[in-house]
Design goal:
By secondary structure, the protein is mainly alpha-helical. It contains five helices and no strands. InterPro entries: HLH_DNA-bd_sf, ILI2-like, PRE.
Length: about 90
């Protein structure tokens, strides 16, 4: 048995439920928390994964927008250093 299998088999159902509950609490308020509370662990994890994928797309979109702003900062008269400092805050 691999260490991963050993570790996985040592996690109790209560621990799994607790971890899923903690993940559900990270979802935005718009999510139907009541439905997730009664949903199976599998459905809850699917919803959490959908939300994480959405967040990843948002980060990608924002990164692209920021890159465009930095690239065009000279042509629009924005100081790139000021823009970078604002983004690091």
């Amino acid at each position: 048995m691999s260490s991963r299998e050993s570790r996985a088999s040592s996690i109790s159902q209560d621990e799994i439920n607790s971890l899923i509950s903690k993940l559900q609490n990270l979802l935005p308020a718009e999510s139907d928390q009541r439905a997730l509370t009664t949903a199976s662990a599998s459905e809850a994890l699917k919803e959490i994964c959908r939300y994480i994928k959405w967040l990843q797309r948002e980060v990608d979109d924002l990164s692209a927008t920021i890159s465009q702003l930095v690239a065009s900062s000279d042509s629009i008269g924005v100081d790139a250093d000021i823009l970078r400092r604002l983004l690091q805050q």
